[in-house]
Design brief:
Length: 430
């Protein structure tokens, strides 16, 4: 086709936006893989383009210039080097792409590589061809990060949670089950959201908890799994056993374990002993509508979407259906709400709010805008023709709201403050 022979940036411009990811060795620039949105069916970049993108970055490095991002009329490019060993380059023509979101994408991709292969094999690779072969095991997980965002976990690097009335009972059963399985790290997963988890699970690095959930969602459905995983922050060189067991369709229990017990013992003995009595409750929890909000809470009708982040435990509540009904045919469809909320989060965190203390070294493209203030901004709002947005940066929580355009601007602060108080009340357990 004619487009396949073009060498201008427009070669990546496709309907709905395209994303292409390059992975190379940092020292020699040898390509390790090239992945595009849609997988192998998409057109691969010509070697000359790959060489040019890596060459301009290496040229700057030789002159002590750090090239992190560039953009053309329709494409944004971001570079990042990890441990002086792996260079990742992403090209995106997505309308909502930003340096911050693409930087988070590169962090997630490298963490995914460490999760599957371990840091030692990536940093001290002695056989490039073998590394290329081993990296194929990461493709499914990596490709899932290239697809259009359906949530905010990849941006916030926080595990998304859901709240159901039976959460306390399930939490107690999970604690006992994890203890019997000789594990301190356990969680219940409904779809892609954490229903409840042990205290030690929330002590994992934020990106680790998010990655483990993302890994499960990227794999084909299965009744049980026993996988070796490396924790990118907690244990990048020593693998752990990652066990998953499907309790009912749509609901799984996740565990990080040592060499014992066996997967068969867990499935045949412990699952039946602890979870069989709660079978009806588990089925009801799996069928619960994905509203994610604490039971009994109703929000102002003007709210179109929200993102609440618990900064202590690095978990979040996210929804673009806060009223519990479909938004199709409304003044702002669900797809637009999601895009607006993701863009607002990226803009606010990179420009106005200070970087999270736990992830300070992990955000490569933090703007210096706030350095010009004598204080750290605690509130932020934006006004567009189709919606308004408001954010609060508190000591323990961050709240991001998308509201209808007819909500008065002067009422945004009180609306956001009352919403935050409602969602973080003692009985909501968030």
């Amino acid at each position: 086709m004619e487009k396949s022979e073009r060498r201008s940036p427009k070669m990546w411009d496709e309907a709905g936006g395209s994303v292409t990811l390059l992975c190379l060795t940092a020292s020699s620039g040898v390509p390790l893989y090239c992945r595009s949105r849609g997988g192998a069916s998409k057109q691969q970049l010509p070697f000359s383009v790959i060489g040019s993108l890596n060459g301009v970055h290496m040229f700057g490095s030789n002159l002590d210039v750090l090239l992190t991002a560039a953009c053309t009329e329709n494409t944004r490019v971001v570079w990042k080097v990890f441990h002086n060993s792996i260079t990742l380059i992403v090209l995106s023509s997505d309308e909502g792409a930003s340096d911050f979101s693409l930087g988070r994408l590169l962090e997630n991709v490298f963490s995914a590589m460490v999760l599957v292969l371990g840091l030692e094999e990536l940093v001290n690779a002695r056989n490039i061809e073998r590394l290329k072969k081993d990296l194929k095991a990461c493709y499914k997980l990596i490709d899932s990060f290239l697809e259009p965002g359906k949530c905010t976990a990849d941006l916030t690097q926080c595990a998304e949670c859901t709240m159901v009335p039976s959460r306390a009972i399930l939490q107690e059963c999970l604690e006992v089950f994890a203890s019997a399985a000789e594990s301190r790290f356990g969680s219940l997963l409904v779809g892609s959201q954490v229903l409840c988890a042990t205290e030690q699970w929330w002590q994992l690095a934020a990106s680790e908890a998010m990655l483990l959930v993302w890994l499960v969602c990227s794999l084909p459905p299965h009744t049980s799994r026993d996988l070796p995983v490396y924790l990118p922050h907690g244990s990048p060189t020593v693998p752990h056993r990652f066990l998953t067991l499907q309790l009912v369709p749509g609901l799984e229990v996740l565990l990080l374990c040592g060499p014992k017990p066996s997967l068969q013992f867990l499935a045949d003995e412990l699952v039946k002993r602890f979870w069989q009595p709660l079978l009806d409750l588990l089925k009801a929890s799996a069928r619960a509508p994905p509203r994610c909000l604490p039971p009994g809470i109703s929000l102002a009708p003007g709210i179109l979407g929200l993102l609440l982040i618990n900064q202590d435990q690095r978990k979040s509540l996210f929804t673009v259906e806060p009223q519990g009904t479909s938004a199709e045919g409304s003044e702002m469809p669900l797809k637009n709400r999601l895009s607006a909320l993701r863009s607002f989060y990226s803009l606010t965190v990179s420009l106005y709010f200070p970087c999270e203390k736990f992830e300070e070294s992990a955000v490569p493209l933090q703007e210096e805008f706030q350095a010009g203030f004598s204080h750290c901004p605690q509130h932020c709002y934006l006004v567009y023709a189709t919606y308004k947005a408001y954010a609060i940066h508190g000591k323990r929580h961050q709240l991001f709201l998308i509201v209808k355009p007819d909500v008065p601007t002067f009422a945004l602060r009180s609306l956001a403050t009352s919403t935050l108080q409602t969602l973080t009340a003692e009985d909501s357990a968030f």
